[in-house]
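[agent] plan:
  1. take the single chain provided in the ticket
  2. run structure prediction with default settings
  3. attach structure tokens to the ticket
  4. add a short note for the reviewer (M.T.)
[agent] executing step 1
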Amino acid sequence: MAITINIYYRGEGGNAKKFAEEMVSGGIVNDIRAEERNIRYEYFYPMDDKETVLLIDSWKDQRSLDKHHASPMMAKIVELRNKYDLHMRVERYVSDETGIPATDDAFIRK
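[agent] step 2 finished; step 3 output follows
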């Protein structure tokens, strides 16, 4: 049962993008991706909102996510969020492990 968390970071004056860039340039993103049982850790920029950055963060299970939250990396992330005065909206999804149904698969161009 994989867990995916969408975190929408919002700031002013391009701060959300600066935060994401510093997460990458500081090596924090690579360190998180190297954590055991991390599936995905990627930033995206919504086309219609220049002050928001979307993080898609996926883990194999809750135990893996809890371990990540207890890691020293979280202090670095919190420090950067505070530095850039970011606010967050969070969505959480749990995979159903059944895959894409054939009725949906018909609409996917491969």
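[agent] step 4 note for reviewer: The first strand starts at residue 3 and ends at 10.
[agent] ticket updated
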